[in-house]
Amino acid sequence: MESPHSVSSQLVMMVAMAMTVIISPVLGQGDLKTGFYSSSCPKAEAIVRSTVENYFNKDPTLAAALLRLHFHDCFVQGCDGSVLIDTPSSERKALPNLGLRGFQVIDDAKSQLEASCPALVSCADILALAARDAVDLSGGPSWGVPTGRRDGRVSSSSVVSNLPGPADSIAVQRQKFAAKGLDDHDLVTLVGAHTLGQTACLFFRYRLYNFTATGNADPSMSQAFLQQMQSICPKDGDGSQRVALDKDSQLKFDVSFFKNVRDGLVILESDQRLWGDSSTRRVVENYAGNVRGLLGVRFNFEFPKAMIKMGSIDVKTGSQGEIRKICSKFN
Fold first, then answer.
1. H or E segment and range at residue 41
2. If DSSP codes are grouped into helix, strand and coil, which group holds residue 229?
3. Does residue 87 have a known ligand-binding role?
4. What is the pLDDT of residues 218-251, one digit of tens each?
5. Is 89 labeled as ligand-binding?
6. Is pLDDT at 18 greater than 70 in this prediction?
7. Per the annotation, does 80 bind a ligand?
8. What contacts 201, CB < 8 A, 6 or more positions away?
9. Which residue among 5, 70, 72, 185 is the active-site one?
10. Cys bridge to 109: 51, 72, 151, 184, which one at CB 3.0-4.6 A?
């Protein structure tokens, strides 16, 4: 057993490490760097932050929506703002994206930035900054976001096929994340974003009544939790009924999600499968553990690193792409 002194020293070290993420200096991530707009548009990040905060104060559920927008953008053709384009055949109209929200936050921030710094700040960067601010406002960590992305000139619903799905096995999740340069640790860490937000009964009701077409419930679910979910999502009830992804604190960025994975108390099959694979289970255990005040510090340190890594997927920089004047339209 560790002595109180060694645990205390470990806590101090981890807090110090976490703080280095929060107050990170100018760091590069490929062709991106934090502070990219510090000279050309010094108020860029403050404008995004104030916009997100204004909307968040009226509707805290938008935090999860903004995180999801950034994730869905990056996983399809890279982090290039293509998910924001609004045409009949754009990514935004693909089935997995029909539930996306928060577009008005990005559009509002963009209009303010165009008034202050015309044709300088990309919609892709606004998405990345807004996701960071959403986490921070929800009680999670903050971090220096590497910026300098440019907006893509292509957005097609036909290429939206590789987004992780709610029934994906670990093998399928692993393949989808690996295709984007993300490993098992990144996978579990990024799925931890499910500490925020909701989903619809439609996407998990099969776990309650007919798992693997057996006519039975998913045995990995806690019995008491199963009964609770069956009361919220009746077999023939409204499939659009919303349920929190984190039953304990859907508006607070914390590690209760990982405890729920450990205890069979999560909604989505893909989330629960994290406990059934030895590699992903180790990461869940690390985040779910409670060691004398260390709860949450490890996750708060690792999540920004995973977000920075994800935010660098297939970015367009330099002379590639464009800087859109309106985020929903190509120039």
1. none
2. helix
3. no
4. 999 999 999 999 999 999 999 999 999 999 899 9
5. no
6. no
7. yes
8. 232, 233, 237, 238, 239, 240, 241, 243
9. 72
10. 51
